[in-house]
Design brief:
2 helices, 2 domains, mainly beta, 5-stranded mixed beta barrel, binds zinc ion, 3-stranded antiparallel beta sheet, OB fold (Dihydrolipoamide Acetyltransferase, E2P), about 230 residues
Length: about 230
């Protein structure tokens, strides 16, 4: 039985239907605490890092259903993400700002994503029409992906930035995202324990570490269940 508070654990133990327990022990562990996370760069193999950056390459799916994207040039991989986590991670766009927590794999060098916090959403737009010619009002023609637009009638040119665009609604909100519990490392701190670091950017500047409440200082203790 795992829990955050001693009294919850003892209460939960009493609800377990089994043969009577002879002894029980409560001990404090670093499970679910992010104790393994090093809150600094550089990214070195066999460490788990916590860093912020901008998405520099949007997510793409590779064989096996893994999702890969880049943050400040570092490759980040979400392995076989569940449907919901995949949808969220897959909705990242270049210029989104994120905080990544993940373990560094040496070869191929990548950061295995343990959780991600979306800090800022970039404005994403899509083209809805070619620009119109400032002289004759006719729709201009594209002369190639990166080339300026040109009016077939007057020969006037306009840059790509003159095209009519509309913003695309983002299917992602600011906040933390994590894989389902079955795909998590036992040291990974679940988001539900991170309430203290979720609300604001300021709060999350502190390393997200679980602090036992003072009343729980006596965690390391041995007890015996009464059999009454
Ligand atoms: Zn024209």
């Amino acid at each position: 039985i795992r829990g955050d508070h001693v009294k919850d654990l003892v209460g939960a133990l009493r609800t377990v239907r089994s043969e009577p327990a002879d002894r029980w022990l409560i001990f404090e562990t670093n499970q679910g605490t992010d104790d393994h996370v090093i809150s600094a760069l550089p990214i070195e193999p066999s460490t788990t890092v916590d860093f912020r950056g901008d998405v520099t390459r949007g997510p793409r799916t590779i064989t096996g259903g893994h999702l890969i994207f880049s943050v400040d040039g570092y490759e980040v991989t979400a392995y076989e993400p569940s449907k919901q986590f995949r949808e969220k991670v897959g909705s990242l766009f270049p210029e989104d700002r994120v905080r990544v927590i993940g373990s560094v794999r040496d070869s191929p060098r990548t950061v295995n994503l343990e959780k991600v916090q979306v800090l800022h959403l970039a404005e994403v737009t899509r083209k809805i029409a070619n620009p119109t010619c400032p002289q004759c009002g006719k729709r201009m023609k594209s002369m190639g992906r990166a080339a300026p637009y040109r009016c077939a009638r007057c020969g006037v040119r306009r840059p790509r930035s003159a095209e009519a665009r509309e913003s695309v609604p983002r299917r992602l909100s600011l906040g933390w995202y994590e894989p389902p519990v079955g795909s998590r490392r036992h040291l990974s701190k679940p988001l539900q324990r991170m309430a203290d670091s979720v609300p604001s950017e300021k709060a999350s500047l502190e390393p997200a570490r679980f602090r036992a409440p003072e009343s729980d200082i006596s965690l390391r203790s041995i007890g015996r269940l009464s059999r009454s």
